[in-house]
Amino acid sequence: MTNPLGQRELDSLREDADRFIAELDEEAYLHFSGQKDTYDLVPIYERHEALTKLDTALALGASVNGGRNVRELWKFACEGYLGNFVGEEEEKAAEAETKTVKVGDEEIAYRDLRPRIMNETDRAVRERLERARNEATEEHMNALYLRKHEVVHRETERLGAPTYTELYRRFGFELDPLAEQCREFLDSTEGLWQEKGDRFFRSRIGMGLGEVERWDAARVFRGANWDAAFPADRMMPALEASLGELGVDLRAQRNVILDLEDRPNKTPRAFCAGIEIPDRIALVIKPQGGPDDWSSLFHEAGHMEHWAHTSPSLTVEEKRLGDNAVTEGWAMLLEHLTIDPAWLTRMLDFPRPQEYAAEGATQLLWVVRRYCAKFLYEIEFHQVEDVTSMRPRYAELLYDALKVAPSDTDYLADLDDGFYSSQYLRAWAFEAQLRGYLREKFGTAWFSRRDAGSLLRELWSEGQKPNADEILEDVTGQRIELAAVADRIREALAAA
Ligand SMILES: [Zn+2]
Questions:
Q1: At 1, is the pLDDT very low, low, confident or very high (cuts 50, 70, 90)?
Q2: From the CA of 202, how far away is ligand 1's center (Å)?
Q3: What is the DSSP letter of 171?
Q4: Rounded distance, CA 123 to CA 364, Å?
Q5: Residue 428's closest CA among 376, 362, 477, 371?
Q6: Cα of 218 to ligand 1 centre, how many Å?
Q7: Ligand 1 mean position to 296 CA, how many Å?
Q8: Fewest 10 Å CB contacts: which of 114, 197, 212, 332?
C-alpha cells in the first residue's frame, strides 16, 4: 500500500504543477503564434519529471481525502504519467500529418486535406480528397493511434483502475448519468434532426439526408455563403464593443496580451493561452473573417475573460485544474453571440439574422448529436479488451446520430483524450441554461447590459473552484440538463 503524502509534499507538488503548466502554455504560445520555430516539450517534461512518475500518482491517489483539490492534483499526475508513454506516438502522428498525400497530380499535406474539402466546390473532387484522407489515415496514422490506446489501457491498470473509463469515474466524472442524458437527447431530437437537417441540406446543396455524404456536410457547414457578412476587419472592433458593453475595457486589461501581429508561421486558428492565471493571458488571432473565424475568436475570448478575471487568491487547483466544463461554458456563451440574431443586428448590419441564427442552431444540433454519439462510443471504447473490435460500432453510433455515414477509418482518431467530450457536452448545457437565465433577467439584449456584465465578472472570478453544476445551481437553481440545448435549438428554428 502507498502512504498518503504530508502537507509539505502536497504543497511542493502543487507548486511544481503550477510551473509545469505555465511552461507548457508559454511554449505553446510562442510556437503557435509563430515566434519560435521549434516546439520543445521534452525539456519541460524533464524539469518536472517527479510529477509524472507512477509513485507520485499512486501517492496522490492515496492522499485523496474527499477534498476536491487533492483529487484534482491526483488526476493531473495520472494524466501526466499516461502522457509519458504516448509522447513518441503523438510526435510521430504530428509528423505524419505534415507528410503529403498524392491526390491525382497533386501532393497535399495530410493536415490540409480537411480544410481543402471544406473549401472545395466540386463534389467529385471533395469525394476524391476525402477518400485519399481515409486511405492515408489507415495507412500512416492508425498503427500509431492503436499503439497509443493499447499503452494507455495497459498503464491505466498500473494506476489501479481496471479501465480508463473507471479511472475517470474515480476522478469524479459522472459519466453514466451524462450518458443517459445523451441517449435521451438523441431520442428526443431524432425527429427534429431528420426534418430540419434534411431541409437544411436540401436548401444548401439540393440533397437531403440519405444522399448527403460526409464530404458534402463538411462543405455545407463551412458556411461560405455567409463570408461577406463576417468581414475580417470588423472582428476585433466587434469583440471590443461587446466586452465594453459588459463593462470590460479590453485595451485596458494589462494582464491580457492581444497578439494580432501577422507572422508567417502563426497558426490560422485563434487560441488562448492562460500562461499565468490571472496575470498573463494571451489571445492569439490572425483575423481572416468568415463565420468560423468569428465564432472561434469569440470562443477564445470567453476563455480569456474567464481566466483574466479569476481571483488571484484561489489555489492552483482552483485556477488551473477543476471542471473544464466551466471555462468551456464561458467560451460558448461568447461564441454563441455570433449566432444570436439580437447581437448580430446590434453589432453588424447583418442580412437576414433569423435565417443565419436558424442555420447556427441546425449546426449546433449536428455538433451536439455528434458529440453525444462520440461520448457514448468513448465510454464503450475504453472498456473493451480489444479496441479494434470497436470499428463497426463507431460507424454505427455516428451514422445513427447524424444519418450521414462517417468513415470507419476514423475509429481510433476521433476520440477526445480524458473524456473531454463530456466537458463540451456539459458546457453546451451550461451555456443554454445560463443564457436562458440572462435573457429572462436582463432581456434578449442581455449582452449589452452592464449589470449582466457585473454578474459575469463575479462568476468568472471564481475560476474553477465550483464546478459547472454548482455555478448553475447557485445562479439559476437548476442542474445541468442537456435537454436545455434542445429547447434552445427549437426556439431558434421556430423563429426563422
Ligand atoms: Zn474552448
A1: low
A2: 31
A3: T
A4: 24
A5: 371
A6: 21
A7: 9
A8: 114
- If you measure from the C-alpha of residue 194 to the centroid of ligand 1, how many angstroms do you get, rounded to a whole number? 29
First to last CA, the chain: 62
Instruction: Map out the domains of the chain as residue ranges.
Output: 7-161, 180-495
**Torsion angle of C-alpha atoms 297, 299, 303, 305, degrees rounded to 10:** 70
Helices marked H in 99-227 — which ranges?
Answer: 113-119, 123-136, 142-158, 164-170, 175-188, 190-192, 198-205, 214-221
Backbone angles phi, psi at 414, to 5 degrees: -85, 55
Q: Band of the pLDDT at 486, cuts 50, 70, 90? A: very high
Q: Is 368 helix (H, G, I), strand (E, B) or coil?
A: helix
d(CA 282, ligand 1 centre) in Å = 14
Grid coordinates standing for 10? Answer: 502536497
What is the Å distance from ligand 1's center to 269 Cα? 12
Instruction: Extract the C-alpha cell encoding 48.
Output: 518536472
**C-beta separation of 408 from 394 below 8 A:** yes
Task: Give the dihedral of Cα atoms 57, 58, 59, 64; nearest 10 deg.
Answer: 90
C-alpha cell at 408: 470507419
Identify the CA nearest to 400 among candidates 423, 419, 372, 428.
372
Compute, in angstroms, the gap from residue 299 CA to the centroid of ligand 1. 6
pLDDT tens per residue, range 400-418 = 999 999 999 999 999 999 9
pLDDT tens digits, residue range 73-94? 999 999 999 988 887 777 787 7
Rounded to the nearest whole angstrom, what is the distance from the C-alpha of residue 270 to the centroid of ligand 1?
10
**Centroid of ligand 1 to alpha carbon of 205 (angstroms):** 30
308 Cα–ligand 1 center, Å: 15
Find the DSSP H helices in 33-112: 42-47, 54-63, 68-98
Options 3.90.420.10, 3.60.20.10, 1.10.1370.30, 3.40.1000.10; which CATH number does 180-495 get?
A: 1.10.1370.30
The residue assigned the cell 499503452 is 151
Question: pTM for the whole thing?
Answer: 0.96
Q: Nearest 5 degrees, angle CA 292-CA 296-CA 299?
A: 140
**17 close to 80: Cβ distance less than 8 angstroms:** no
Rounded to the nearest angstrom, the distance between the alpha carbon of 177 and the centre of ligand 1 is 23
The answer to whether 252 and 308 are in contact (CB under 8 A) is no
Which residues are within 5 Å of ligand 1 (an ion), measured at CB?
A: 328, 331
Distance from the CA of 326 to the center of ligand 1, in angstroms? 10
